[in-house]
Amino acid sequence: MTEEIRWGIVGPGRIAESVMGDFAHVPGARPVAVASRSAERAAAFAQRHGLARAHGSYADILADPDVDVLYVATPHPQHHAVALAALDAGRALLVEKAFTATTPGATEVIDRARERGVFVMEAMWTRFQPAVVRLRELVADGAIGEVRSVQADLGVARDYDPLDRLFALELGGGALLDLGVYVVSFAQMLLGAPDTVHVAGSLFPTGADAEASILLGYDDGRSATLTTSLRYPTPGQARVFGTTGWIDVLPRFHHPQTIVLHRAGTAPETITRPQTGTGYAHELVEVTECLRAGRTESAVMPLADTLAVQAVLGQAADQLGIRHAEDPAVL
After folding, report:
1. What is the sign, positive or negative, of the torsion defined by CA atoms of 187, 129, 156, 323?
2. How high is the pLDDT of residue 308?
3. Which CATH superfamily is domain 130-274 in?
4. Which of 6, 9, 47, 49 ranks highest by number of CB atoms within 10 Å?
């Protein structure tokens, strides 16, 4: 691995546009190339962001010898095929959440990464936000005792448009994979993998999920109550309840600046930890440092956690009658 980590972007969509500006806050990381199935889109993205090369196919960027790591920002069902091909080409990966469209797809990518000894991480930026890092430190130090319950919600109101990716089942649309991944990952971070998953929700006419309320149960009585929606807005707040207090994560919890610690018998303590840049810099730093150190996984966002989250999303989808599928024809 070179001292400078050279990045390639796969999929020049909305999220990739948002992430690009934060590379300026990552020492030793340089975006150098972009790939799209549209040569025109790739060229326009490269020009906007000063990238050296624009590839008109995903296969071309996998063969680019001057790229060390790929940031995969395509629609969810395309992650699986791109990731497998990249791993076979020896390319490290940062894969947008949700990691894949299905649990078997995630399992295959993770197994391949471990077989090849190549770094892969899910781009769950929440875990790297300074305020969330502080929350985890407080929990680990016993500030609220034993964590027994988590609440989290993330919902937005979107006008139904069957032509928009958000509502297209074949493109991984729906609340679960776009927004539900945040609430499930937050709960899993604090409670681990659940023993039971129960869900209630509804679907759009396209078959994509419009809303879901998820109850995660644990054999020792712990629980998480989670809400996600494309049908109605929610505050985007989270609460972590312990045996001696609780922590409020102020909206929006998936990239917060402020948490409030409530210890039993003491006044609330407000803790503010602003993000660097737009907030994506922290996960980019993690990947860059892991690659420099020769690691194949992140300790903050390990692959076992990604698989546990994907399994919950898969169970929720099954209960709602949603049939997500990977897209093998993307390359």
Report:
1. negative
2. 98
3. Dihydrodipicolinate Reductase; domain 2 (3.30.360.10)
4. 9
